[in-house]
Amino acid sequence: MTARIIDGKARAEALRKEIAAATRQLAQAHGLVPGLAVVLVGENPASQVYVHSKAKMTVEAGMHSVEHRLPETTSEAELLTLVGQLNADPAIHGILVQLPLPKQIDGQKVLNALDPAKDVDGFHPMNAGRLATGLPALVPCTPLGCVILAKSVHASLEGMEAVVIGRSNIVGKPLVQLLLAENATVTVAHSRTKNLAEVCRRGDLVFAAVGRAQFVRGDWIKPGATVIDVGINRIPKDDGKSRIVGDVAYDEAAGVAGAITPVPGGVGPMTIACLLLNTVRAACAIAGVPLPAMGIRPG
Ligand code: NDP
Known about the structure:
Layout: E1 4-5, H1 8-30, E2 35-41, H2 45-60, E3 64-70, H3 76-88, E4 94-97, H4 107-113, H5 125-132, H6 141-153, E5 161-165, H7 172-181, E6 185-189, H8 196-200, E7 205-208, E8 226-229, E9 233-236, E10 242-245, H9 250-254, E11 259-260, H10 267-287
Parallel strand pairs: 1-11, 2-3, 2-4, 5-6, 5-7, 7-8, 8-11
Antiparallel strand pairs: 9-10
Helix pairs in contact: 1-10, 2-10, 6-7, 6-10
The site of NADPH dihydro-nicotinamide-adenine-dinucleotide phosphate has 26 residues, from helix 10.
């Protein structure tokens, strides 16, 4: 079997177009321009790339984009002051504090200080709790993108066996909640799971969020399963340069799976598109106006 490749790049582009149309509609009907503030502390090169593309795509979607680049030496108090200002700024509907933060700053304290209504990353305990209890919430972008991609293969996930490998607060745990909300039967695996390959083979849907290059092997995959690879790992190439691979051994898994996301070009592009989606949602909720109709409305 050769798996169908799930084109996350194309899917994300389609979603961003829908968001741009929704943004135009909000401006015309309500004079509402969703605003996203991205805060970057320090010089982490990967974070700088992410922040740049987030800002670019925010503007392309017709939204107001603000970037705050703070030095590596920024104190926790300084960052909390900025968060307080952004919480109070009526032109800002979404605030994203790019992780990781430098050592002197307690990241959880900063996340806790965000106005939950503007928490477009969905990491505030209020949003995590709302998601877990089935209340409307701002949902973390990467898991949201994973579910949209799975639903591009299966119109309904109801009753499907889903295996999630990884239980981080950023990916694994919120993904479990989203899959439960879709009525999938969910197994969560982690570093203490026994017989991981066997557990993985149960999955009609396999979500790999482990952070280990090419960790999930082809013979762990049930024939015909849908594989969503969240991993972003840099590995050396023969020419001394490096390349990005996922948490799944792609070539092996693609020979067994029914559908699979590539890395790059799978989950990654969906994450930013979902950030824009969350910003529009947050803006509508704060302004008390209905979210314009969009084709893609998971969760
Ligand atoms: P974390 O390191 O926070 O979590 C990794 C999870 O994998 C943990 O729950 C850990 O288990 C589990 N794990 C580690 N080793 C094993 C093992 N040998 N067997 C089974 N489970 C294991 O990572 P994140 O969730 O933040 O990220 C996961 C991956 O997704 C990374 O590659 C990251 O780069 C990528 N990522 C991609 C994004 C995107 O936009 N595409 C966004 C965010 C992340 P335990 O809890 O027991 O320690």
